[in-house]
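User: Could you check the structure of this?
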Amino acid sequence: MADPRRKKPALQVIREGNAGKRPVPDSTAVPPSDLTEPDWRETFRTVDDPKREAVNTRCRAVASREWQRVVPVLKLAVGLGEVDTTVLKDYCISAARIDQCDRELSENGLLVQGERGWQKNGATTIAGQYRTQLGRYIRELDLSPSARTAITTPEPDADDSDVWD
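Assistant: Sure, the predicted structure tokens are below.
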């Protein structure tokens, strides 16, 4: 079920029609733009340690895959503007870090031998925090299955005039 407290994006309201005749504030409408994928090497920098470099290389690949998977869907569904770049980038970074934590847990286990005996692997805490953040991004970007059912995509052959003309 859609979140009743969150409003639909302005572009979606315009596209679907404004049945309630509520005003659509101009300040919420963002002109669509072609978003360029960030250079993931700036976020996941190259390092000298081969093991850490392998981790960063995988993070770059995971973040890039996620960007390429989500951006086309969001462009079609709700329209994306340049202001959305930061949220999308953080979403992709969270996905990459969760992958990194999961690999760490698979490699070293949930418990590790510490100074005072067995203790919880720190990656479990980090993964939990990233999953919480990722959930917020999923709700914000309407990427959950329930949110997708509330979004109606435009017909591919629709001759509607562009909102920004």
